[in-house]
Amino acid sequence: MSIEDYRPDFIVEAVYDLTPDSLRKHGIKAVLVDLDNTLIAWNNPDGTPQLREWIDSMTEADMPVVVVSNNKYSRVKRAVEKFHIDFVSRAMKPFTRGIHMAIDRYGFSKDEVVMVGDQLMTDIRAAKRAGIRSILVKPLITSDAWNTKFNRARERRVWKKLEDKYGKMIYKKEI
């Protein structure tokens, strides 16, 4: 395993900064997105008005959004059903199971899909393994669920190695 396995293709402040136009400029036609701390704060399962606006803008632009989450079915369903977007639960990131399920379900082409998430160790690594592009976003809130805290410690070491090799990683407002 090399440090490249954790290097995101793009780094943006928030999933809400992604627009259909900016995605299309990069040949992206579908967005796979992590749930906790990417789409919604892990401790606020109801989301925000900003989330509703972003999903509406993607839907109006015919840009499919599919949540790919390691969470259990009931948790993901409760979080996304009011937004009428599809999801894959128990995705098993950093493995590729959930990403492949979403790609296969919709017949997406790997070069037209991007995985968006807040963790190098799960979201970005899974995207690299699946052979698709990735976008790292800042976590929506600075606290994590108990099961994510372990990954964050490892992630800080990986982040430092990435910056040592490629220079400072800066969150931007668009891809």
Description:
The chain has a single domain, classed as HAD superfamily/HAD-like (Rossmann fold, 3-Layer(aba) Sandwich). 39% of the residues lie in helices and 14% in strands. The protein contains 6 helices and 6 strands; from the N terminus they run βαβαβαβαβαβα. A 6-stranded parallel β-sheet has the order 1-6-5-2-3-4, sandwiched between helices. α3 links the parallel β3 (65-68) and β4. The longest helix has 21 residues, at 146-166. It is globular and about 40 Å long. The model has no long low-confidence stretch (mean pLDDT 91).
Quick synopsis:
This protein is α/β, with parallel strands linked by helices and 175 residues long. It is 39% helix and 14% strand.
Characteristic terms for this protein:
single chain; 175 residues; alpha/beta; Rossmann fold; 6 strands; HAD-SF_hydro_IA; HAD superfamily hydrolase; HAD-SF_hydro_IIIA
Number of strands: 6
| Distinct helical segment count | 6
User: What ranges have pLDDT less than 50 throughout 5 or more consecutive residues?
Assistant: none
Count of structural domains: 1
GO molecular function, one term: phosphatidylglycerophosphatase activity
Keywords: Hydrolase
Protein name: HAD superfamily hydrolase
InterPro entries: HAD-like_sf, HAD-SF_hydro_IA, HAD-SF_hydro_IIIA, HAD_sf, PGPP1/Gep4, S-2-haloacid_dehalogenase
